[in-house]
Amino acid sequence: MNKGILSFLLFSFSLLAAQQKPVKIAFLSDVHFQDLYGSFSDHDFKGIVNPKTGKPTILRTMDSQLHSTRIFNENYFAFLKALDDIATKGIKIVAMPGDFSDDGQAYNLRGLYKILEQYHQKYGINFYLTTGNHDPVGPFRNEGGKDDFLGKDGSPLGIYSKDGLGKARDKIITKDIAESGYLEILSELKDFGFYPKKRDLFWSTPFDLTPFTNYSYKKALPSADYSKRMYEVEKGFNVPDLSYVVEPVSGVWMVAIDGNTYIPKKLNDKPENPSNYKGASIGYNNVLTHKQHLIQWIKRLAQDAKTNHKTLIAFTHYPMIDFNDGATKEIKGLLGEKKWQLERVPEEEVAKAFAEAGLQVHFAGHMHINDTGIRNFGDKFLVNVQVPSLAAYLPGYKVLTIHSPEKMEVQTEILNTVPRFDELFPLYEKEHETLEKDTRKILWNKDILKTKSYHDFMLFHLKELVRLRMIPDDWPADFIKKGEKLNGEDILFLSQSLNVENAQHTLQQKEIHSESFRKWNFDDLLLDLYKFQSADELARKDIPKERLEQYQLLEKEFEKNTIQDPFIIQWKSLFRILSLLSSGDPSDHFEINLQSKSIKRL
Asked: What does the pLDDT look like over 373-414, one tens digit per residue?
C-alpha cells in the first residue's frame, strides 16, 4: 500500500477515534477562594505567623467559620486537592459555576488567577468561570471589609478598604479588600472564559448576534469588551451581564449564564451608586422579572445547537429547580416562609421557562448542597445538577462525561482527605484561649481541632453550624425547648401518644424494641436532617444504618397518629421532611438519557 495513503488512513482513523472519545468536564462550584498567603498592594501586612509553618497567614477566625454556611480558610487546601485530582484524571475542562471568590476582593482575585494559570500551564486545564453573588457582591466596585480576620493575639482583626467601616478595634486599611465589581473581575480573570481564546472553536455573548457559521476569533474579540455587555435592568440603570457560550472541544457548547440580577433599591438614585443595588442571592426568580433576554438567548442557542449538531451544557451559580426534594411546602409549614433559605428556592416557572427554551442539562451551585432535580413539561425535559461546595459539608465536585449527544454520566467526587487541612490549627488554639476570657460569648467546640480528616472537619463544621446558628435561627423555640430533652426512645413513645407503660405494651405487640432507640437523641436527629439537606443520598454513609431504619419506622408511626396536638403535628412534619430529603432523585453517580428524558442510578 502507498505510504501516503496509509498515513492518511491512520490519521483519519485517529481523528475519528479522537472525535468519539467521551468529553469530560469537571464542575467546581462555591470554592469561595481566599488567599491565605496573599499580599496587599498598598500595605505590608502579610498575616500572622503560624508557629507550625513559620509562614505569615491571612485568615478568618474559627468563630466566624462556625457561624457561616461556609468555611473561609481550609477550602484553600481543598481547592488545591480538587485541582490535583482533576489533573490526575486527565480532565482538561473545568467549569466553575460562581462564588469562585469570597466577595471578589482584589488580593483574592490575584491569588485565584495565579493558581488557575499555574494549573493551565502545567496540566493544560482550561477554566471557564461564571459569576456568583460573591463575585461580584454588586455590579460596581464598593467599599468593604471584614471584622473577623484573626489578629496576632487571638482577637479579631478588621481589614477594611477605608476608615470608618466596621467595628473591630484593631484594623488595617487597604484598597485590596474592597468588593470588586464586574469591571475589576473581568479585567483580572478574562483569560478564564470571559474573553474568547484563539483555541476556542466558538465564543459569543447574549449581545452578539453574529451567526455561528460566520464565527471568527477576530470578530468575537470586540464583543467581549465590558462596554458591549450591558443591559437595562430598570429604566436608566445599565448593569453588566458576563454570560457567554464557548465551544472548547468540537461538538460541545458550554453556556456560562451570569444569573446575577442586581436591581436598584431606589429609582431616583444615581445608576453609578454601588450601594443602591439589592443582592443577587435570590437567583433565577429575579431573572424572570428583570433579565428576560437570557431566556431568549438560551432559546436561540438551543435552536442553533440543534441545527449545527452541538451538545448544549449550561452552568450558572443559581439552581433552576427546587432543591428540597419536594419538602419545601412541609418546611414552610413547620418553620415559616423565611426560614431554611426558602427565599432562594426557584419558582416552578423558572424550570418551565428554560425547559421550553430548549435547555436540558444545567449545573448549579449557590446552595452548597449535593442534589439532582428533574422536570418534565410535555415533551420538554430539564435536569438540574447541584454541585456541592468545597467549603461545606459534604465537600466535593462533579464530573460530567458526555458519551454521546443523548447519553451523559455524572459522577460525584468527594474530598475525604485533603493534605494540610490542619495547617492552621495552632492559630485557632490561640483564638480559643482568647475567647475563653470573654464570658459573654458562646464558645465554639475546641474538639474540631482533633479531627483527623477533611471529611471529619467539615462534618464537625456542620454540627457546630447547626448548634450555633441553624437551631437558634430556623426552629420554633418552644419545639426546641421540649425536644432537646428527648432521646430516640422518648420520641418513639411520643409517636404512640400514650403514657410510657401503655406505649411499651403497644410497641411490644408490634415487635418494636424501644431500647435500641436510646442510642441517639434529639440533637443527633436534627444534625442528620441537615446532613441529608446538604449531602442528599451521600449522607447515608455518615448515619448508622440502624438509625436510618428507625427514622423510617418513626415516620410511619407518626403518620398513623391522628391526635391533633400541635407538638405531635410538628413531629409528623419533621419526619416527613426527613423522609423526602433522604429519598430524592439519584445524586451520586447517575446517567442522563436525553432520548428517554430520564435519569438512572449507576
From this structure: 999 999 999 999 999 999 999 999 999 999 999 999 999 999
**Mean pLDDT computed over 26-34:** 98
Closest CA to 346 of 261, 278, 276, 263: 261
CA 31 – CA 361 distance, rounded (Å):
22
Secondary structure E strands in 264-403: 311-315, 361-364, 371-377, 380-386, 396-402
Cell representation of residue 494: 411520643
Q: Reduced to 3 states, what is the DSSP secondary structure of residue 366?
A: coil
The position carrying cell 477550602 is 75
On whether the pTM is more than 0.90, the answer is yes
CA distances for 175 relative to 106, 150, 167, angstroms? 8, 19, 18
Residue type at 414 in one-letter notation: I
Among 229, 275, 310, smallest CA distance to 23 is for 310
ω into residue 394 within 30 of 0, thus cis? yes
Query: Which of 465, 300, 321 has the alpha carbon at shortest distance from 385?
Result: 321
Q: Which residues contact 438 (CB under 8 A, 6 or more apart)?
A: none
Q: At what angle do helices 75-88 and 454-465 cross, to 10 degrees?
A: 140
pLDDT in tens, 150-189: 999 999 999 999 999 999 999 999 999 999 999 999 999 9
- Residues 497 and 357: beta-carbon distance below 8 Å: no
User: Residue 599's beta-bridge partner residues?
Assistant: 592
Q: Using one digit for the tens of pLDDT, what is the confidence trace for 330-344?
A: 999 999 999 999 999
Q: Is the distance from CB of 571 to CB of 332 less than 8 angstroms?
A: no
Which pLDDT band, with edges at 50, 70 and 90, does 16 fall under?
very low
Q: Tell me the pLDDT band of 20, cut-offs 50, 70 and 90.
A: low
CA distance 160 to 170: 11
Distance CA 126, CA 116 (A): 9
CB-facing half-sphere around the CA of 114: CA atoms within 13 A = 12
State the Cα–Cα distance between residues 297 and 87, nearest whole angstrom: 33
Q: What is the mean pLDDT of residues 266-278?
A: 96
Angstrom distance (rounded) from CA 85 to CA 397: 10
Cα–Cα distance measured from residue 112 to residue 563, given in angstroms and rounded to the nearest whole number: 57
Question: Both ends of the chain: CA-CA distance in Å?
Answer: 46
**Grid coordinates belonging to 592:** 442522563
pLDDT tens per residue, range 484-505: 999 999 999 999 977 777 878 8
pLDDT the model gives residue 14:
45
In angstroms, the Cα distances linking 18 to 22, 25, 40 are 9, 16, 45
Estimate the crossing angle of helix 488-496 against helix 500-509, to 10 degrees. Answer: 90
Give the distance, in angstroms, between the CA of residue 270 and the centroid of all CA atoms in the same chain.
33
Q: Helices 75-88 and 106-123, interaxial angle, to 10°?
A: 20
Closest CA to 137 of 262, 285, 316: 262
Is the distance from CB of 493 to CB of 570 less than 8 angstroms?
Answer: no
